[in-house]
C-alpha cells in the first residue's frame, strides 16, 4: 500500500534523491524545507545571501513542497499532518561553521528535531516509522589498533595540537609508534568534537528515545562522507569532494590539509538514498543505529588526484598545505557489516563510477568558489592553522 511520507530537508542534496525514489515507487511525498540560502544560492544565481523564492529544479515537482523552518512549531505541526512515515534529513551541515554559529546550529538541528517530535507525538499513532540522518562525525576519531594488533581505547587516539604543529599527523601509541586505522563499527563509543556532531548525536538519541516511548520504530543512519550529483557546490562548508570540484572547475588546485594521507569513506548518494528508503518503508527491517558507508577507504590526496583526472585537469595537482583544521579527525571509515546483515544494505556504486557520474553532472553546473572566504572566516576564528 502506498505511504504518505514527510521528507524534511527534501530540497537538499540527499533529500531530493530520496524523494525521487519514493515517488518512483508510487508513494505520496511532502517536502518541508527552509531553503537555507547558503545551500540553495545556486538555484537563484544570486549569491550566498540572495532570497530564495523557488524550490530547486532538482526537486521533482510532483512532490508537495512547503517552505518552512521546522524549528517553528506551526511548521512542524503542518508538516506531519496526514503522513504515516517521516524521514528527517533537515539540518545545518557546516562542521566548522557550527563552532561559531552555535545558537543557529542548535536551533536548526536540536530544536527543529524537538519540534518535529512534539508534532509527531501530538498525532499519536499516525506515524508508523521514523528515519533520522545521523553522521560519522559522532565517532570523532575512527577505530584504531596499535602496531601489535591490539585494540586502542578511544581516549588514546586523540592528537595533540603540539603534534599537529610539528607535522606529526598520525595518532601515536605511548612508544611513539603510529596507530593503525581499522573500520569503525556502531559499538565504538561516540566522541563529538564539533557542535554539528553533538547536534547529530542529539537528533539520533532524541528520536530514538521518543520513538521507543511511543512505539515508533526509529532508525538513525550514520552517513559517512556522501557525494554525488546535486551536492551544494557553492556552499563552502560542504564536504571535501564538492570543495575540490568547485576549485578544479574554477581552474584552481585542490588544497589538501595535513599531508593528504588522512582516510575517509566516500559513499554515493544513490546508495545512501536506497538505505533511507528501505529503513523507512520496510516494516520487516529492525530499527536501530546503522553505519551507511561504502565500506572502502581512500586518502584525501588520492581523492584530489582522481577527481582532477575525472575532470580532465591532471595539471591541477593537489596543493599540500600542511595546514590543519582544529577538531579534524585523522581517519574514519565504515564497518558496514551491521547494515549489511540487518538491513540488507549493499552499496552498489564504486568511487570511480560515482566520480564519473559526478563529473557528468558537474559539466552542467556553474560553481562559485567560496572556499577562500570560508577559509578566511575559519582562520580568523583560530579554527584552521
Ligand atoms: P543539504 O544541506 O543539501 O540538505 C539539508 C536541507 O535541510 C537543506 O535543503 C536545508 O535548506 C534544509 N534545512 C536546514 N535546516 C532546516 C530547518 N530548520 N527546517 C527545514 N529545513 C531545513 O545537506 P545533505 O548533505 O543533503 O544532508 C542531509 C542530512 O544528512 C543532514 O541531516 C546531514 O547532517 C546528514 N549528513 C550528510 C552527510 C553528507 O556527507 N552530505 C554526511 C553525514 C550526515
Ligand atoms: C565532516 C563531518 C561529517 C560531515 C562532513 C561534511 C566530522 C568528523 N565529520 O567530515 O559528519 O558529513 O564533514 O559536512 O566532523 N579537506 C581538505 N581540503 C579541504 C577540505 C577538506 O584537505 O578543502 C580534508 C579535511 O581535512 C578532511 C577531509 O578532507 O581530512 C574530509 O573533510 P570533510 O569533507 O570536511 O569531511 P569530514 O571532516 O570527514
Automatic annotation (TrEMBL):
<dbReference type="InterPro" id="IPR036291">
    <property type="entry name" value="NAD(P)-bd_dom_sf"/>
</dbReference>
<feature type="region of interest" description="Disordered">
    <location>
        <begin position="144"/>
        <end position="188"/>
    </location>
</feature>
<feature type="domain" description="NAD-dependent epimerase/dehydratase">
    <location>
        <begin position="5"/>
        <end position="144"/>
    </location>
</feature>
<comment type="similarity">
    <text>Belongs to the NAD(P)-dependent epimerase/dehydratase family.</text>
</comment>
<feature type="compositionally biased region" description="Basic and acidic residues">
    <location>
        <begin position="157"/>
        <end position="171"/>
    </location>
</feature>
<keyword id="KW-0413">Isomerase</keyword>
<dbReference type="InterPro" id="IPR001509">
    <property type="entry name" value="Epimerase_deHydtase"/>
</dbReference>
<protein>
    <submittedName>
        <fullName>Putative nucleotide-sugar epimerase</fullName>
        <ecNumber>5.1.3.-</ecNumber>
    </submittedName>
</protein>
<dbReference type="Pfam" id="PF01370">
    <property type="entry name" value="Epimerase"/>
</dbReference>
<feature type="domain" description="NAD-dependent epimerase/dehydratase">
    <location>
        <begin position="183"/>
        <end position="293"/>
    </location>
</feature>
<dbReference type="GO" id="GO:0016853">
    <property type="term" value="F:isomerase activity"/>
</dbReference>
Amino acid at each position: 500500500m502506498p505511504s504518505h511520507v514527510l521528507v524534511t530537508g527534501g530540497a537538499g542534496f540527499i533529500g531530493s534523491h530520496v524523494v525521487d525514489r519514493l515517488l518512483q515507487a508510487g508513494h505520496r511525498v511532502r517536502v518541508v524545507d527552509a531553503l537555507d540560502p547558503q545551500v540553495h544560492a545556486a538555484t537563484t544565481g544570486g549569491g550566498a545571501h540572495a532570497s530564495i523564492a523557488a524550490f530547486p529544479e532538482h526537486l521533482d515537482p510532483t512532490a508537495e513542497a512547503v517552505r518552512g523552518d521546522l524549528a517553528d512549531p506551526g511548521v512542524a505541526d503542518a508538516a506531519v499532518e496526514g503522513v504515516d512515515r517521516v524521514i528527517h534529513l533537515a539540518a545545518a551541515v557546516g562542521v566548522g561553521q557550527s563552532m561559531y554559529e552555535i545558537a543557529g546550529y542548535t536551533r536548526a538541528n536540536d530544536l527543529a528535531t524537538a519540534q518535529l517530535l512534539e508534532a509527531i507525538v501530538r498525532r499519536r499513532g499516525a506515524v508508523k516509522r521514523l528515519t533520522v540522518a545521523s553522521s560519522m562525525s559522532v565517532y570523532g576519531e575512527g577505530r584504531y589498533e596499535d602496531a601489535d594488533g591490539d585494540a586502542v581505547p578511544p581516549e588514546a587516539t586523540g592528537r595533540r595540537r603540539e603534534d599537529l604543529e610539528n607535522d606529526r599527523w598520525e595518532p601515536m601509541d605511548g612508544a611513539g609508534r603510529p596507530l593503525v586505522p581499522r573500520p569503525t563499527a556502531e559499538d565504538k563509543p561516540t566522541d563529538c568534537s564539533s557542535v554539528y556532531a553533538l547536534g547529530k548525536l542529539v537528533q539520533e538519541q532524541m528520536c530514538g528515545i521518543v520513538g521507543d516511548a511511543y512505539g515508533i520504530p526509529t532508525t538513525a543512519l550514520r552517513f559517512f562522507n556522501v557525494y554525488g550529483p546535486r551536492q551544494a557546490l557553492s556552499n563552502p562548508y560542504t564536504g571535501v569532494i564538492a570543495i575540490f570540484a568547485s576549485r578544479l572547475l574554477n581552474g584552481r588546485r585542490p588544497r589538501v590539509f595535513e599531508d593528504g594521507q588522512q582516510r575517509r569513506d566516500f559513499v554515493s548518494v544513490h546508495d545512501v538514498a536506497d538505505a533511507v528508503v528501505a529503513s523507512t518503508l520496510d516494516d520487516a527491517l529492525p530499527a536501530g543505529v546503522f553505519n551507511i558507508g561504502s565500506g572502502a577507504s581512500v586518502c584525501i590526496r588520492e581523492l584530489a588526484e582522481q577527481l582532477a583526472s575525472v575532470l580532465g585537469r591532471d595539471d591541477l595537482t593537489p596543493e599540500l598545505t600542511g595546514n590543519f583544521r582544529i577538531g579534524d579527525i585523522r581517519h574514519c571509515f565504515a564497518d558496514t557489516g551491521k547494515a549489511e546483515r540487518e538491513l540488507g544494505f549493499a552499496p552498489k556504486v564504486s568511487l570511480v563510477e560515482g566520480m564519473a557520474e559526478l563529473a557528468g553532472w558537474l559539466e552542467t553546473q556553474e560553481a562559485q568558489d567560496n572556499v577562500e572566504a570560508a577559509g578566511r572566516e575559519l582562520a580568523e576564528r583560530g579554527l584552521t592553522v
